[in-house]
Structures are given as structure tokens and as C-alpha cells.
Amino acid sequence: MVCHADNPAGVRIKLEVSMRERPVLPVTSQPQLSLDHFPQLDFRPADIPCLAFEEILAEKLRAASQRSKIRDLHDLAESVDRPFDRPLVRGVAVLKLWSQREALDYTAIITRIRSHADYNLADLSSLLRKDQKPNLDRLVDRVAGGYRFLGELTELERSVASDLSGHRQDLVARLTEHLQQGAGPNPPEAA
């Protein structure tokens, strides 16, 4: 429960912290979204340290490949029109799934998403404005179309993705280094 002088009853918030793994990409500081009351504050709202947007999307892709949470599907669908480095997302997603001993497989992810019988729309409705009504088919189509680039793995990404036993740490290190350097879509070839 969080409370202050103007709201002594407080507000219940939920905070989730994962210490499962270190971020692949450097953490960035982002300004808070500007709110109407910010100019009235006696201080400047602080920037917030957070994962790089591409890493957030890679985490959402890992989640979407492992569970059926409507908020993951919604977040992915909403991100499609935002600018982001698609090869970087794909490479980080390969590493995220590799750490779980799973391969990034665009077809499998979309097949899982399309078999949406267990998505709970009520979970999403409670997070949206009252005038917003989620359309499951539209969300699925946006994700399927917008993330088609996941099926275009480079040779190095394919090699890491196919290492489900986790023995090719050398390839993982090469892909990680390449991604951290912010290189373009053509990483060095796998050995």
C-alpha cells in the first residue's frame, strides 16, 4: 500500500522484480511520460532506468511463446507501429529463449497465439479504458504480421537457437557481443 498526505487511504500497487538473468542490452534511462501536473511540481520528475525497448519486446516474445497471457499479446500488438530495431529484437529473443533451452520459432509462436482459446479477455479489459474493447483476432493478426521478421534468422541466430543443450557458449558469446555493439542485421557467421 502506498499512501501520502493527499491520499492517506493509499493505493495498492503490484511490483514484480525478476533476478532470473542479466539484461543482454545496456539499461537505459527514460523520461517519464509527461502528465498534466508535472509543470506544477517543485522538482523535475526523474528519468527511470529500464530495459532497452528491444529487450522488453524480446521478453514479451519469450513470454508469448511460453504462456497465454492476453497482456503479452496486447503489448506486442501495440508495439508493431513503434520504431524499433527488428534484427536486435530477433537476436535478443533468440538469446532469451536459448536461456530457457527453447528455440526461437516464429511459426510455433504464431501457432500458439492463434490457438487463443485460453486467453482471458477480462484480464485485458480491466487494464484498458472503458471505451476500449479488445478484439482478439485483430491483436493476433497484428502480431503475426508485425513480427514476421522473427522467421528471418541469420546463420548465427539459427546456430544459437538450435543449441538446445546449451553447449555452444562460444556462439552465445558472439551473438551477445554483436547485439551489445548495436551492429546491423548481418552478424558474423557461425562456426
Largest sheet composition: 2 strands, antiparallel
Structural class: mainly alpha
Order of helices and strands: EEEEHHHHHHHH
- In terms of DSSP E residues, the strand content is 5-15%
Overall shape: it is globular
Q: How many DSSP-defined strands?
A: 4
**Gap between N and C termini, in Å?**
53 Å
Radius of gyration: 19 Å
Main-sheet strand order equals: 1-2
- The percentage helix is 40-55%
Q: Spans of 5+ residues with little confidence (pLDDT < 50)?
A: 183-188
How many helical elements? 8
What's the mean pLDDT score? Answer: 88
Structure in words:
The chain is mainly alpha-helical. It has a domain at 54-180. The chain is 42% helix and 7% strand. The protein has a two-stranded antiparallel ribbon. The chain has a two-stranded antiparallel ribbon with strand order 3-4. The relative contact order is 0.13.
